[in-house]
Design a protein that fits this description.
The complex is a heterodimer.
Chain A: H1 3-13, E1 18-20, E2 27-28, H2 29-45, E3 50-54, H3 59-71, E4 75-77, H4 84-94, E5 97-101, H5 105-109, E6 115-119, H6 120-128, E7 145-150, E8 160-164, H7 165-175, E9 186-189, H8 196-208, E10 211-214, H9 220-229, E11 234-237, H10 239-252, E12 261-264, H11 271-280, E13 285-292, E14 297-302, H12 304-312, H13 316-319, E15 327-328, E16 333-337, E17 350-355, E18 362-363, E19 367-368, E20 375-383, E21 389-394, E22 399-401, E23 404-406, H14 408-417, E24 421-431, E25 435-444, H15 450-460, E26 469-472, H16 486-497
Parallel strand pairs in A: 3-4, 3-5, 5-6, 9-10, 9-11, 11-12, 12-13, 25-26
Antiparallel strand pairs in A: 1-2, 7-8, 13-14, 14-15, 16-17, 17-20, 18-19, 20-21, 22-23, 24-25
Helix pairs in contact in A: 1-2, 1-8, 2-3, 2-6, 3-6, 7-8, 9-10, 10-11
Chain B: E1 10-12, E2 19-24, E3 32-34, E4 37-38, E5 40-41, E6 65-67, E7 74-79, E8 85-87, E9 90-91
Antiparallel strand pairs in B: 1-2, 1-5, 2-7, 3-4, 3-8, 6-7, 8-9
Classes of the chains: A alpha/beta, B mainly beta.
Region (Disordered) (chain B): 83-104
Organism (chain A): Parafrankia colletiae
GO molecular function (chain A): medium-chain fatty acid-CoA ligase activity
Chain lengths: 498, 104
């Protein structure tokens, strides 16, 4: 299966439905396919083996994704927020390629060997030209590379995750019903094009027949305005977005009446934020989605019914599920394993391993680790007796204090549980006797002392897990996708306390 | 005629517009038909003179997934058509898929 197939099916079965853009004047699925085929034909003749994109959200994102697929070349969306030097380094690794650029990007890149630039407007003009040649067919086969996504590199040098056509299409056809969206459904896309959620939104919405409206980049007021103006029904947000959206609607009191579903993911969502969201938007169904770039997006979901059941339950185990990422998708397998790769009993912590058609687990120039199809995610987690998956953070972030392993996520959850704490992050910094010591950074809303927070943690966890120092800050360092920059924080806390 | 199908292989009906793609292969050779006539691989020549068997004219809707519990075969209709799918003379059932909450 191939991304070209998804587009052709939508163009065939949902020709006159609006695919992309405003209710009036947006592109239909038939027109989207015509334009993607024209861009596909142009990309076949443009230089390079790959097609990059360095731009904000616009219709050019979906058109370049599908156009590249039809041209038989991998699509490589690149983070435009990177510093010039890093951006040039990543683009150099993408060569030979044609790169679609937004305003101001060409000047930042300068001349790079093997890189041919085309502006967003030039690309859109090719798509809109009825005289332009259209490419035939899907563009290749299932084993071809569909997308290369550079991981955020919060723990090291960015790697390019390889997603093949079969990975992405398997994800789409097993999780989305073809033409399954009602005609009035509209999704807002505000995650950047280089995020896996941006790629999966384009694929899933096309297949389900759901219209997409885009924000160039996320800004809470603009997000709320667009949701109201276009009667948006579905949204995907990363944790840092949701709180800011709630602030806007709380201030203006207008609510979000058209909205039916908010899915969130891309990092741990603080419980107080989701509880506030459920209270403020009682008509909205909440979905917690857990996934990785390397798994073509979502591998586990906590659906609206799970949220409701957890919030209304007296059973502590059921209530705790609000902090889980739900159950693994039926189309794949999840296993929790120890450091030796052996499955651990239910309830015990270990590394999350996953296997299924959507799982790539492959990096450019590195290949994939062959474990009979299993991909070790480097995320720590556990499964409860009901099959609910809990994610405790990256294994690489585990703190080792005097031989005892502890996950920052567990300590962070306890800190956030304190009514005065809004955000919390825990890292290990070097210690002369213990190897590492536990330190924390918090953003608080009320009056609270370091000693009080230490008592709070000690009461719930053993004392070795109690942060030896707690720094009070106005904000934590997050990247634009809501991912905590642990390396940055660790360096800062090391300077303050080590 | 028996066919051994591989994932990703595309077949078309010889008597209507239906086209399918194999999602999961069958455990062994099977006789996949549409409109009562054996399907052919997309790109292959369509034998002349075949007609749609009225007993298999219920239609194949675009975008539906089908699964044969017996052989493990799973496929997706990439084009709809007037004929319906069968393994030999046994109609191929729709795959029973529970809808998942939208996460994208």
């Amino acid at each position: 299966m191939h991304l070209g197939m998804l587009l052709e099916m939508a163009a065939d079965g949902l020709a006159d439905r609006i695919a992309l853009g405003p209710r009036v004047g947006g592109l239909t699925f038939a027109e989207l396919a015509h334009r993607a085929r024209r861009i596909g034909a142009a990309l076949q003749t443009l230089p390079g083996d790959r097609v990059g994109l360095i731009d904000l959200n616009s219709p050019a994102v979906a058109l370049t994704l599908f156009g590249s697929a039809i041209a038989g070349k991998p699509f490589v969306p690149i983070n435009y927020r990177l510093a010039d030097e890093q951006l040039r380094a990543i683009v150099t690794r993408t060569a030979p390629a044609t790169v679609v650029v937004g305003a101001g990007v060409a000047e930042r890149l300068g001349e790079i060997d093997g890189i041919h630039l085309i502006t967003r407007d030039e690309l859109l003009a090719i798509g809109a030209d009825p005289e332009a040649k259209e490419a035939d067919g899907w563009g290749g086969d299932a084993e071809d590379i569909a997308v290369l996504l550079f991981t955020s590199g919060t723990t090291g040098e960015p790697k390019a995750a390889v997603l093949r056509h079969r990975n992405l299409t398997e994800y789409v056809i097993t999780t989305v019903e073809f033409a399954g969206s009602a005609e009035d459904e509209v999704a807002i896309v505000s995650v950047p094009p280089y995020h896996i959620a941006g790629v999966s939104a384009a694929c899933s919405s096309t297949y389900s027949g759901r219209r997409i409206v885009q924000l160039e980049s996320f800004e809470p007021r603009a997000w709320v305005d667009l949701v109201r103006a276009e009667a948006v029904t579905h949204a995907m947000v990363v944790p840092t977005m949701l709180g800011r959206i709630l602030d806007v609607i709380e201030a203006d009191g207008q609510g979000l009446p058209s909205l039916r579903s908010i899915s969130y993911g891309g990092g741990p969502m603080p419980l107080p934020v989701i509880e506030r969201a459920v209270t403020m938007l009682p008509h909205v169904g909440f979905v917690n989605a857990y996934g990785l770039t390397e798994t073509s997006s979502t591998i586990a979901v906590l659906g609206p019914d799970d949220h409701q059941a957890a919030i209304s339950s007296d059973d502590p185990e059921v209530r705790a599920r609000l902090g889980s990422v739900g159950r693994p998708l039926p189309s794949l397998e999840v296993s929790i394993r120890d450091a030796a790769g052996v499955e651990v009993p239910t309830g015990e912590h270990g590394e999350i391993w996953v296997r299924g058609g959507q799982v790539s687990g492959e990096y450019l120039g590195i290949g994939r680790i062959e474990n009979d199809g299993w991909f070790p995610t480097r995320d720590e987690g556990h499964l409860d007796a009901g099959g609910y998956l809990y994610v405790h953070g990256r294994l690489d972030d585990v703190i080792v204090r005097g031989g005892e392993n502890m996950s920052p996520g567990e300590i962070e959850a306890v800190l956030i549980d304190h009514p005065a704490v809004e955000e919390a992050a825990v890292v290990g910094i070097p210690h002369r006797d213990w190897g590492e010591q536990v330190v924390a950074a918090v953003v608080v809303t009320g009056d609270v002392t370091e000693e009080e927070l230490q008592r709070h943690v000690r009461a719930k966890l053993r004392s070795s897990r109690t942060p030896e120092h707690i720094q009070f800050r106005t904000e934590l360092p997050f990247n634009e996708n809501g991912k905590l920059l642990r390396r940055v924080l660790r360096t800062e806390l090391e300077q303050a306390f080590a | 005629m028996s066919t051994l199908v591989k994932p990703g292989t595309r077949y078309k009906s010889t008597v209507c517009d239906t086209e399918v793609i194999i999602v999961k292969p069958s455990s062994g050779p099977i006789d996949l038909r549409c409109g009562g006539q054996p399907v052919v691989e997309v790109g292959a020549e369509v034998p002349a003179g075949l007609t749609l068997d009225p007993a298999f004219s219920g239609g194949t809707p675009l975008g539906k997934r089908f699964a044969d519990p017996e052989s493990g075969l799973e496929l997706l209709a990439t084009k709809g058509g007037a004929g319906s799918l069968s393994i030999g003379e046994v109609p191929l059932p729709l795959k029973d898929a529970k809808p998942l909450p939208s996460s994208d």
